[in-house]
Specification:
It is built from 15 helices and ten strands. It has 383 residues and is an alpha+beta fold. The protein has two domains: 7-235, no CATH class; 252-360, no CATH class. The strands form three sheets. Strands 2, 5, 6, 7, 9 and 10 form a six-stranded mixed beta sheet that branches. Strands 1-8 form a two-stranded antiparallel ribbon. Helix 4 (180-189) crosses helix 15 (362-381). It starts with 6 loop residues before the first helix and ends with a helix. Bound molecules: zinc ion. Residues 22, 24-25, 27, 178-179, 182 line the site of zinc ion.
Amino acid sequence: MATSLDDTEIDDYKEEIEDNNCLLCGVLCEIFYSKLVRPTRPTVLFGEEKWKHRRKAKAEHVIVPSKEVEEGYFAKYPFSWSAMCRASECPKSLLGLQYILTDTVIKQPGTTKYFLSGITTIESAQLFSYVIPKDPNVARIGRKTGNLQYDDTFIRFHAANIERQPSEFQGKNIGFIVHAHCWALFDYIIPTALVEKKLEKFIRAGRKYWRNNRLWGIQDWEQKLWKAGHGRTHNQGFEFGCDIYKNPLIVPEVQKVVDNARKTKKEYKPPRCSHVPLEVATMIAEWTCPVDYTADVKNTRNMLLAWQWTFPDWFWKVRLKEELFVELNSLRESNYSIDWQALRLDLMALVSDQERYLSSGLPNRERVIGFMTAIKSNFLKTA
Ligand SMILES: [Zn+2]
């Protein structure tokens, strides 16, 4: 990943960090520092189209199915996703001797076991604990205020530290945090149903990865301030090569392309290059669209249309990192009739347009998928 920081600067960043980093993407789970936009306040998330009807209820918080969050793009305040998290929790932890076993959380056999919680929105506050629904299938929108009591469908926990646990957490519930959307994206890398059965192994795999890779707990203050000001000032650019606050799971630009492919419902065309041998057709296409294309794919699109050529999968796969487009999985599994060539050309048009590509959030997805792939590999290697 491109970064303009050297090691000393990263250390400076890390002095500022708190403990609630997402174990999957390394970025802090938090709200942005803006008095107007605090996703823990019901007024913010109830302002999103899908939850508008909740406003009338005047409830401080409501419980919704977790899918509503995981599948949701927050059009009004897109960065709300970064405050919505789950936790792998360990009720009543018994901490290890930290100065000797810095990476070990020892649990009392039989009494402590990690479980995956539901979703809540959180605000960063190092010394405070968080309250989260226990049920992984639900999400809490908004927040209870005042002295209202939580019933036993909620659990209070302290956000665990990726490196080592502070001694004051001894005997308290601790939880490793993941963004709700990062957890859903992780399901494309490795089935989370499998990970859920071995959460302790997952936590070890994640912590091992981040201890060896220093880009966790990073913050891009310029971006944060820019977003908190709703983009009214000049954008200073990206500290870490891309916008780390873009939602890595929901990329509206890709969704648009996929929805369009679904609607078009074109017939599947088998590879066909009229009377020209395939080798010759690909040589001609290579000229208008080389493997490392930087220009728009308009000429390629026109050429294929004019000559009615359909190239086989391998032609496209060397030109498009399809593993990045997780949305294609459901298309492959569905019965939709898809014009794959047109779909791939649309995605290539998005990738080749640097400005569109950077603002789409895809580079952040690529960054996060890189971490997830490494964490998966640690997970599979961990005994
Ligand atoms: Zn994350």
